Amino acid sequence: MAERSKTAETGSDVGIDEIITGNLSKYAAVPPGYFGQPKKGHLVFDACFESGNLGRVDYITEFEYDLFIRPDTCNPRFRVWFNFTVENVKEFQVRSVCHQVFDYIVL
């Protein structure tokens, strides 16, 4: 897992232990050092809708991502559900969805 990542809203560095307060909005998870427009296959995560709760995504490999799920609004002790969308997938990524690894990290 990556030690640090950039927030979707500000682009500033955040540490693992920092509290995530907002949802990702059309965040493209790209390899470290990649600049420019996301290519097909660079997954775009979105949780900026009612009941969305994805706070951060770290790109690990093309098929592995660390997902940081925000706590439930009325009960910060629990994270019993997750709700977000993923876009910009390649055809082979859709067929191999069983092999896609999302590591859910509870903050």
TrEMBL record:
Gene3D superfamilies tied to this protein: 2.60.40.3120
Q: Record's superkingdom?
A: Eukaryota
**Could you cite one Gene Ontology molecular function of this protein?**
carboxypeptidase activity
Which cofactor is recorded for it? Zn(2+)
InterPro entries membership: Cytosolic_carboxypeptidase (IPR050821), Pepdidase_M14_N (IPR040626)
Matching Pfam families: Pepdidase_M14_N
Q: Which UniProt keywords apply?
A: Carboxypeptidase, Hydrolase, Protease
Q: Where does the Cytosolic carboxypeptidase N-terminal domain lie?
A: 46-95
Q: What is this protein called?
A: Cytosolic carboxypeptidase N-terminal domain-containing protein
